[in-house]
Inverse folding.
């Protein structure tokens, strides 16, 4: 009886599972050797984020989130991955050995960072209205691992995907603590992301055109 | 004057689109006209700054107008400079792209203080990033491509954090306004006293880190010297004089809400820490620079540090000084970059060791570059002398702000680096075979405009501008 009372509801369990899936795909992106795999993982992660928005829309009757889920799906699951994969196909670059550390070391560091993010963010006095509050901690963990993806992979596609997935982490955080953000603002934010993706794409092309590689190793003339 | 806000929203972006199709000479003329129109619209707003338009989505107050003055002035001056710098001979494709990007970049910076609310503010700052990243790469060199990639990546990651700050502030507001509301400034200010303090603290720190990346605060400044040095000089001038300022504006909007919600102590301490770090590091790096444009870039980091430290002082006069510093820095840094562009074009190098006898070779822009450098070193009678005097006076008026004394020492260190440069490059003997004469009268005109503005700000700022600064400082208390 007591155990039944303490068990999470279907909504809590489902939403936390999706938030956890977002974090796990980030780890998979970190260790994926192929740029194409990374982009597909990003699409999968974006699908989870769109699914989370749809889940909240259905269970909490937030009509605006239906539109957000649909737009997020179109842009982040379909358009952005297609743009990047088309570029990879044109550049005929597939395998990019860009791990700055061994895979095991990278994952270990990321686990520590994710745990730090989860517990620190989770300890904040924030009480989410629509989603279980631990999901906010998972979003914090995902954002930190996205930073590590940018730092620990030395190729332009990984770094761009790291930025895109950082935005997914912020989207999860937004769904947890700001699900009521007006739809018009959400749409503007997504459109802005699309513009950023196009500019990242242009600069990746410029880099590849000049160096014939996706590695960032040639980018050492300037020291900040 | 709601219509003036609509004009600001439409004019530069329309000109940007037109530049894609027009001959380069027409694009140049349109850019100058758009800069002049922007200055005119902003001038209309100075006496009565609080205005809204388009159902409240556009709104300016005294604080917004201060930053609009800086951006609009530099837009006009840089457009003039660009006419001399980007000749039609460089090619129609390059010229069209450059002026289209230039006006779009200026538009993004103009609308940043015009939009109402933290979410649209973030969108506007993100647009400034993507447009300026393309402009940094436009010269199509290895170094420009590298600088552009690093800038886009670092600034975008920073803005990701700034977006999180916006979301967290939205949550803070939702505890008062309920689940769905607009993030308009007046609404946030009205309810801020009831926002949960720990959440506001988190949001403010995230905002300072996020927007601080674009402002060039240490330790998230590393893109800045590379982008400033490798971008075409008109873009460098806008990056330094206007883009850093509008990023600071974004921080001030969070500062405003945070001070209302949790009191001034915490926001001031955060800004003090990052400001001191920026000032100290920039002062150290300034003396060792060998590249003319990187030198100016580190000077920008130093001045952003001054702004952050000034905001940490409790005396109202320091805040007035900070806002005046935004204007004076825009004028001084724009003029200095114009002079640097003239020198680089004449000598064909950015290396300080190879530039000699600038005053002898460039009869107008050479001396004006020295004057702009002296202005940046806070020498009288220029605007930065007045603004730093106000900031330091404010700091020394309260014993708790004794850091004001440290500020004086560190700024003096930074000043030494710039003065050393001025003596080295401008007063030496002219290298053999160097032809005496200016590269363009438009470059000279843009520098005269900048220096006159810098001197007016130092000697006797117009009464309406002084009133505007006082009102804006009042809005930040």
């Amino acid at each position: 009886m007591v155990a039944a009372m303490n068990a999470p509801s279907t909504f809590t369990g489902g939403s936390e599972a999706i938030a956890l899936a977002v974090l796990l795909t980030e780890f998979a992106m970190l260790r994926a050797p192929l740029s194409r795999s990374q982009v597909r993982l990003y699409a999968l992660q974006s699908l989870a984020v769109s699914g989370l928005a749809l889940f909240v829309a259905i269970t909490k009757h937030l009509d605006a989130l239906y539109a957000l889920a649909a737009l997020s799906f179109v842009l982040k699951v379909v358009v952005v991955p297609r743009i990047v994969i088309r570029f990879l196909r044109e550049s005929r670059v597939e395998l990019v050995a860009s791990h700055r550390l061994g895979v095991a070391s990278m994952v270990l560091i990321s686990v520590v960072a994710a745990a730090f993010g989860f517990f620190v963010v989770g300890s904040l006095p924030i009480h989410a209205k629509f989603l279980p509050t631990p999901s906010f901690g998972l979003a914090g963990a995902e954002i930190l691992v996205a930073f590590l993806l940018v730092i620990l992979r030395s190729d332009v596609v990984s770094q761009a995907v790291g930025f895109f997935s950082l935005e997914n982490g912020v989207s999860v955080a937004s769904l947890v603590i700001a699900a009521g953000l007006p739809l018009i603002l959400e749409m503007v934010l997504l459109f802005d992301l699309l513009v950023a993706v196009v500019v990242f794409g242009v600069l990746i092309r410029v880099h590849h055109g000049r160096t014939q590689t996706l590695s960032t190793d040639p980018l050492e003339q300037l020291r900040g | 004057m709601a219509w003036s806000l609509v004009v600001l929203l439409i004019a530069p972006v329309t000109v940007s689109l037109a530049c894609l199709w027009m001959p380069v000479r027409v694009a140049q003329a349109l850019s100058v006209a758009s800069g002049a129109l922007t200055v005119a619209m902003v001038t209309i707003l100075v006496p009565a700054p609080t205005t809204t338009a388009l159902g409240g989505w556009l709104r300016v107050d005294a604080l917004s107008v201060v930053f609009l003055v800086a951006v609009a002035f530099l837009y006009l001056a840089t457009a003039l400079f660009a006419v001399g710098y980007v000749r039609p001979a460089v090619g129609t494709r390059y010229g069209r792209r450059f002026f289209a990007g230039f006006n779009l970049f200026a538009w993004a910076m103009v609308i940043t203080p015009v939009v109402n609310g933290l979410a649209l503010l973030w969108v506007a700052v993100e647009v400034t990033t993507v447009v300026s990243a393309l402009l940094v790469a436009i010269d199509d060199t290895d170094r420009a491509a590298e600088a552009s990639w690093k800038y886009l990546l670092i600034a975008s990651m920073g803005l990701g954090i700034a977006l999180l700050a916006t979301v967290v502030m939205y949550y803070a507001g939702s505890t008062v306004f309920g689940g769905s509301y607009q993030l308009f400034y007046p609404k946030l200010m009205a309810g801020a006293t009831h926002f949960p303090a720990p959440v506001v603290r988190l949001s403010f720190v995230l905002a300072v880190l996020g927007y601080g990346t674009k402002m060039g605060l240490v330790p998230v400044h590393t893109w800045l010297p590379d982008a400033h040095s490798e971008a075409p000089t008109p873009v460098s001038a806008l990056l330094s004089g206007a883009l850093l300022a509008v990023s600071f504006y974004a921080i001030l909007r969070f500062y405003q809400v945070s001070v209302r919600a949790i009191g001034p102590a915490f926001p001031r301490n955060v800004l003090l820490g990052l400001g001191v770090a920026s000032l100290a590091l920039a002062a150290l790096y300034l003396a060792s620079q060998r590249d003319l444009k990187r030198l100016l870039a580190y000077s920008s980091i130093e001045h952003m540090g001054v702004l952050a430290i000034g905001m940490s002082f409790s005396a109202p006069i320091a805040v007035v000084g900070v806002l005046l510093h935004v204007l004076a820095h825009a004028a001084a840094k724009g003029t200095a970059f114009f002079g640097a562009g003239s020198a680089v074009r004449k000598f064909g190098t950015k290396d300080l060791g190879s530039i000699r006898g600038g005053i002898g070779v460039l009869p107008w822009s050479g001396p004006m570059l020295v004057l702009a450098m002296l202005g940046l070193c806070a020498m009288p009678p220029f605007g930065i002398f007045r603004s730093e005097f106000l900031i330091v006076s404010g700091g020394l008026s309260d014993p708790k702000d004794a850091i004001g004394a440290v500020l004086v020492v560190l700024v003096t260190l930074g000043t030494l680096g710039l003065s050393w440069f001025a003596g080295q490059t401008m007063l030496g003997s002219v290298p053999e075979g160097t032809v005496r004469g200016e590269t363009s009268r438009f470059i000279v005109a843009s520098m005269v405009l900048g220096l006159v503005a810098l001197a007016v700000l130092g000697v006797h700022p117009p009464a309406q501008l002084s009133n505007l600064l006082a009102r804006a400082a009042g809005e930040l208390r």
Observations:
- Residues 15-211 of chain A form one domain.
- Chain A touches chain B through 46 residues (CB under 8 Å).
